[in-house]
Amino acid sequence: MGKRTPPVTPVSSQRRIVAVSPDDGAAIDLRQPEVAAVLAWLVPGLGHLYQGRTRKGVLFMTVVLTTFVVGLWLGNGRVVYASWRPHDTRWWFACQAGVGVAALPAVVQAMAINGPSREPFWVAGWMTPPLHDGQLVSRRYAERLIQTDPYIEADDFWDRPPAKQFRADQLSMWHHELGRFFELGTLYTVLAGMFNMLIIYDAWAGPMRMVDRTAAAADDGEATATPAQSE
Amino acid sequence: MLPALLPLALLVEQIPMLLFSLPLVVAASLIFAATHHESPAAISRATLEWLAWLGGILGVVLLAVLILGAI
Question: Which of A39, A68, A180, B25 is least buried, going by the fewest C-beta atoms within 10 A?
């Protein structure tokens, strides 16, 4: 793991923390690691850009955001959604949320469609959780779905003024429409979020270090030596 | 040229996830290498090492699945 050392210079106004490069032993200025970690979560690579580690920042931003966008494209924009309903808890979103701002619209959409308006904040439906059997939605959103979604027809809604009640399972429709690409898109977006968790750690504490097994074994031997062995 | 690629095409058709997993292996190798090193030269070298490790592990698993599937 990255070695964190106390501030190298006693500057009272700004705390500076450095890590040691595992390659050449050079000091890496982490600036304020907590700020860098938050920035790295918000936008992958931004924490490294803040620290002046430009090449790594650009590399991380490119790889993570490309992986996330490709996943969204494979899943037709439907694989990233937040849902904590009893029979449709989207656990994958815990990992997808690792990419930060790019996944946050899913939270807004989920809160909006489960709120009093009964429709997503962005009515286009991007990152909206699937409708389940019996769910009430606004008339406007129901009509939009009927017009734009080839799998949904007017008969799929009961009239429950002032709302409409869905009477099918939209998640099944998505699986039928996308096939294996639903899982592929989910995998890409989940991995993008998990990659960024490693990147957040790198921004906070510097490069991780491989454990030197020989040295670790020697340390363990010393630490766990019995009195008889010591003698 | 084309007949030589036929076995590969058959493999990709048989295992569609194979094609889509390759970019993920490359991306994972890059991220693992870059979070363990700082200098560009070390990152490049470590990326190749991670590619060999991840590709080797996944290749062995794939081979085992193919053999078990053929039995």
Answer: A180
Burial (Cβ within 10 Å: 0-12, 13-18, ≥19) of residue A226: exposed
pTM: 0.84
- Helix boundaries (H) for A43-82: 46-50, 54-74
CB B35 within 8 A of CB A195: no
Segment (H or E) for A88: strand A88-89
Enter the DSSP assignment of A137: E
Provide the pLDDT for residue A87.
77
Say yes or no for a CB contact (<8 Å) between A63 and B27: yes
Percent over 70 (pLDDT), chain A: 84
| Rg of chain B taking only CA atoms, in angstroms | 15
> What is the per-residue pLDDT for B11?
73
Kindly state the tokens that stand for A101. 């701002």
Q: Which of B23, B24, B35 sits opposite A198 (nearest CB)?
A: B35
Q: How far apart are CA A76 and CA A181, in angstroms?
A: 9
Q: How far is CA A16 from the centre of its chain?
A: 28
Instruction: Express each pLDDT in B13-41 by its tens digit.
Output: 667 677 888 899 999 999 999 999 999 99
pLDDT for the residue B45: 96
State the DSSP code for A157.
E
Instruction: ipTM value, please give it.
Output: 0.84
Nearest by CB to residue B30, choosing from A21, A63, A206, is A63
**Alpha-carbon distance A46 to A30, whole Å?**
13
Looking at residue A99, the DSSP 8-state letter turns out to be: G
| Overall residue count recorded for chain B in this entry | 71
**Closest approach of A35 to chain B, Cα-based (Å):** 18
Instruction: Round to whole Å and give the CA distance between A231 and B55.
Output: 48
